[in-house]
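Example record

Each entry pairs one chain with its bound ligand, protoporphyrin IX containing FE.
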Amino acid sequence: MKYPPVHYHSYLGLDPLLDAQHPKSVEYGKPAHDELLFIIVHQTYELWFKQILFELNSVLSTFQKPVVAEVEMGMASARLERIVSILKLIIGQIDVLETMTPLDFLDFRDMLYPASGFQSYQWRLIETKLGLRMGDRLAYNQSPFYKSLSESQQAEMMEILKQPSLHDCVEKWLERTPFLQGENFNFWESYKEAVNKMFQDDINTVNRNPQLSDEIKKKTVEGLEQTLKSFDALFDEKAFEKLRAEGQFRLSHKAMHAALLIQLHRDQPILQTPFRIIRALLDIDETMTTWRYRHALMAMRMLGQKIGTGGSSGHKYLADATGKHKIFGDFFNLTTFLIPRSQVPPLPKSIADRMSFHY
Ligand code: HEM
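Structure tokens for the complex follow.
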């Protein structure tokens, strides 16, 4: 044999792993049957968080380079997709934990103060490395989120907050997308017309609907006109920057154009991988939001209106965080401006040629 023999048990470090469950209820002489499940579910989450961070760090190292190597793109997209699969799997773990009833939970909950998932360093790393900024977060106990971490974790977190997140890197990568400028590239003008027509058709449909009251029609049309305004801003950098400063957009003007172009022309082979990357980022945001939502419901089910062991308002804090803690929201908003393939204006030949593969 080329390498020394390995034993399953020691290779997987099963001794320390299987010896890492220490229910407090046993320690205090009041064994609560469900505490082992509670510990194991949390531990498996942390193991999966470790794997997510491993994938995320590798994707970040690809994207942090000044020029993203094309050969690494397929791998980066596959690793982001792996993160999505893991997130889907761990949402399912909530079903297992919910086999514990609130009464079973109460048997040991008082023994856990003030520990809380809020102190999960790996979860905070995932959020921060993906691009959740300090200002995006809800205030927790009137103090910044990192105050719940240990001193060494706080120091490390301060450093990580200074580094570019995946959102920052993806923005720069999108800004470098070729094909946006070119001779006779009047694509955006034609596209604008097609989108304006789509919105005008919607406005006419609303106005003609006999089932809607005048008041509802007015409100709906105002909403559509507002959306159209933000679409117009996509083509007027000054107006865009104003909306961006107000928090309506996070990505830069250039990056938004590139993302829209990729979405519209994803059938071009050269844009397939960029499209898959954008889709995986959307999936990550969506699955993290789904996890937050399921976790908030679980907290509601277990605690009702009680406060969390970490001292937050419990379900309310978690539900508010579900709505607020989003990272790649711009990709979702871009969908508003997608039109049917048949109406997308054709690309100028020079650009279409540059986008295809030649043999
Ligand atoms: C009985 C089950 C659970 C209940 C009742 C519960 C409850 C809560 C509550 C109330 C909070 C808000 C902070 C606080 O006041 O403590 C919280 C935060 C958190 N919990 Fe849980 N939790 C449960 C299970 C889990 C599991 C299995 C995980 C997996 C790691 C987890 C991870 C987290 C995380 C990451 C946070 C911070 C969320 C944020 O700030 O956005 N929780 N939990």
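The CA atoms of residues 172 and 255 lie 7 Å apart.
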